[in-house]
Automatic annotation (TrEMBL):
It comes from Splendidivirga corallicola. Belongs to the TonB-dependent receptor family. It is a multi-pass membrane protein. InterPro entries: Beta-barrel_TonB, Beta-barrel_TonB_sf, CarboxyPept-like_regulatory, Plug_dom, Plug_dom_sf, TonB-dep_rcpt-like. Residues 272-696 form the TonB-dependent receptor-like beta-barrel domain. It is found in: Cell outer membrane. Pfam families: CarbopepD_reg_2 (PF13715), Plug (PF07715), TonB_dep_Rec_b-barrel (PF00593). Residues 119-223 form the TonB-dependent receptor plug domain. Its main location: membrane. Keywords: Cell outer membrane, Membrane, Receptor, Signal, TonB box, Transmembrane, Transmembrane beta strand, Transport. It comes from the Bacteria. Residues 1-19 form the signal peptide. This is TonB-dependent receptor.
Amino acid sequence: MRIFVLTSLFIVFTLSAMAQNAIIRGMVSDSVEVIPFASVFIKGTTIGTTTDANGEFTLRNIPKGDYVLVASFVSYTSIQKNISVKENSDITVNFALKPNQTRLDEVVVTGTMKPISRLESPVPVEVYTPTFFKANPTPSVYEAMSNVNGVRPQVNCSVCNTGDIHINGLEGAYTMVTIDGMPIVSGLSTVYGLSGIPQSLIERVEIVKGPASTLYGSESVGGLINVITKKPNNAPLFTGDVFTTSWGEINTDIASKFNLGKKAEALVGVNYFNFNQRIDNNNDNFTDVTLQDRISVFNKWNFKRKGNRVFSLAGRYVYEDRFGGDLGWATENRGGDDIYGESIYTNRWEIFGTYQLPVKERVMFMFSANEHDQNSVYGDTWYIADQKIAFGQLTWNKEVGKRHDFLFGAAMRYTYYDDNTPATASSDIDNPSNQPSHTYLPGLFVQDEIVLDDYNKLLLGMRYDYNSLHGNIFTPRFNYKWNSKNKQNILRFSFGTGYRVANVFTEDHAALTGAREVVFLSDLKPETSFNVNINYVKKIYTRNDWFIGIDGAVFYTYFNNKIFPDYDTDPNKIIYDNLSGHAVSNGVSVNLEVVYKDLSILAGVTAMDVFSVQDGVRERQELTEQFTGTWSIGYVFPKIGLSLDYTGNLYGPMALPLLGDDDPRPEFSPWWSIQNIQITKAFGDHLELYGGVKNLLNWVPWRNLGDAGLITRTNDPFDKNVVFDTNGEVVATPNNPYAFTFDPTYVYGPNQGIRGFFGLRYTFDQ
């Protein structure tokens, strides 16, 4: 009986005590989606839990008192909230976590030309932040793309090291590069305009793979790279980043912001790169890497207006002096036929901005203008060119009800192009004259983003352009997105068409750097294409703080009127014509992201097949790999302020341009890989020292080529001792057993071996 009484009293006391305790409940999200398995706990106690599949949590039997409630999740910044618990209270506390620098689910603008969450975008957009690029510091955006899956910087000339960016196997002429959404890098500047963008001013880089012509017009057939610069209001007060390498390269990035009263704020950045060492490790008496002396100045203004309306204005100036060639070349040899050198002077200015009209609707006017002036010589071939582009675009964003989000746009692009080649000369032999090209490209476009329900979304778009040289062009698009309730599964289906017109310099630049003659068999028609892309995203959150993200895509692009360079029919010519058959680029790409506490992994593979079919004959595209892999692995030791980054890429064999049947060099490149390692030490919140090794494997393309060499006949670059027959074919002689002419086009990767690097970054926010 006594035991029963004591037990009853204990139960009553316990229930009474529990009745006096409180409940804390709530939800954890990132303002876009709920976060399952997030940790929620009371600081300094053992009381805690994790959110369920719907992002909800409940803490029961909390004694009265004042507490600090903490919510945290991998790759997000933790949030603390002070709460006061009273007896019998039922408190609701919600957390909206913000992604940290390693997270890629953020607001994007490239796919739809308006701000939208990356998860909500019906167009698959890849986002890369400065943290990603800092893992392998480079002096240009061009080189920084080497660790992005499915994107490859392609070196096109072993002498001047010109290059472009391939997306899913398509050449650089198919890739549009924009700055803040403006078509700044195009046409003539495609070859040399990718350098000199101060990386300290880059907010992020957004990449769309596949045609974006519906919104951006010509040149975005293969994909779009949008470099988005920082806004003055969210940039540090001062940043400096300087590094040097054991080869003697020096790169400096400096940026600062300031206010002009209460009306405007500005951001100024300067990039300077210098490399002046004539290195010849392959002993062909030619520079392995071009010498460069480049300075770029960038200035961006944000003007404060009533109603927080946007008005931004930015400008950039770039000057570069670039040289590659014979080790004995001097400036006085420029343009002569005694000592071979390729010398390129580039002067370039840009101005671009956005102005929001003072009306109730969201109406934006975007504008840009740029001039690219190039004074270059390739041996004794002079190429003097000037290109001016003016662009204006008006967009109106109109929501109709809760389901339709329209974007209407009108654009005008004017291109002026002049050079010293027959491309801008009259065809009248008796009265020769210079005739610069004037191209007008007005366009109209509309898209409707349709919300069918919480799980399904459509994007329909159409663009009409009138090219003053080629006439009417229509480019429709269709995008569909499905997501699961918790948005951990996303499926996107995209269909789009694209077009591009030929730019003479972009197409025939390889010929200027050698002895090949460029031949255009007919007036080149615009290429047209259609693309199908299926994208699937899977996000996995585990209870022990692992995050795993899988992003896979299957792509297929079909081309009509493809502009095709023929290197093989005549070893002395590059013959351009529209392909009478068709061309195809198709494949599969997978990205894997893994984050666990202080470990982060981003890896990707792409397998593809790019080919053309003409007269029933299927031919693989030259200088295009069938497999590529990239990775970026980082680990942070927070207690000692140290981080380790290991980055790299792997490429499969590519078909290479040979100089005839007697060329002894391999028809295909080997498997090759560039790997880098970096250690960074942080000193407080402002200073970082970093260093490491680039190209750990010391891979270079000229190894194992024998006496043929990467560049043929560097001993006779003007072909003075080459013997030709009556048909213009090269005749093999004892001094020229392989029937070579001078040619630097047998190149597929960077020609720079292993080197150490060291740098420092300083950031001041106050």
